[in-house]
């Protein structure tokens, strides 16, 4: 890729172009994977693949692109910030789960991060609630308002959006595999998932997990 076209891509990202960000992530997959591996402990790597973490970083970045501080950071520096938050989220999710099985549904509805507010933490909480609503047998009979609203919100999406979300968050498929099954590009699937998550977040705004 030429320097000129690289600059053009970065300019588009700074103008909040989701397709440009998805392309940038795809082109810099090796560098991003290496960074994620460097900040991920061996215990977590024994439970989750680096590629899965990178997929989560990509989804979180696309979802929060509209509020990304790209006037202060380069796209790669910002992606590395997102990656740090997602690795922390993954560590909490996998290791805390071992100690909270008896209270699993409540924990999945709770915010994934502590401390200050961030787009990555909010995204993680929404994804965990989505996953719980699609994979937990008890979710069908749940009286939890957020769980029921999530199911209703998913039902309001298009068939294609629902199919992509089911594959990603219920079945854990990588976006490349989803793209193959739906006959789309990896970039198109990442953008589709990003827009779907934003729609869900908007619908669930009045019952979203809060930090209290």
Please describe what this structure looks like:
The structure is a single chain. The chain is mainly α and 212 residues long. The termini are far apart. The protein is built from 12 helices and no strands. The protein has helices spanning 3-14, 18-27, 29-39, 42-45, 50-63, 75-97, 104-109, 119-135, 145-155, 159-170, 175-182, 186-203. Helix content is 69%, strand content 0%.
Provide the fold topology.
Layout lengths: L2 H12 L3 H10 L1 H11 L2 H4 L4 H14 L11 H23 L6 H6 L9 H17 L9 H11 L3 H12 L4 H8 L3 H18 L9
Helix pairs in contact: 1-2, 2-12, 3-5, 3-6, 5-6, 5-12, 8-9, 11-12
Approximate strand percentage: under 5%
Helix content: 55-70%
Order of helices and strands: HHHHHHHHHHHH
* Rounded average pLDDT: 77
Count the E strands.
0
Identify the overall geometry.
Answer: globular
What's the main sheet like?
none
Structural class: mainly alpha
Spans of at least 5 consecutive residues with low confidence: 100-118
CA-CA gap between termini: 47 Å
Number of helices: 12
Radius of gyration: 17 Å
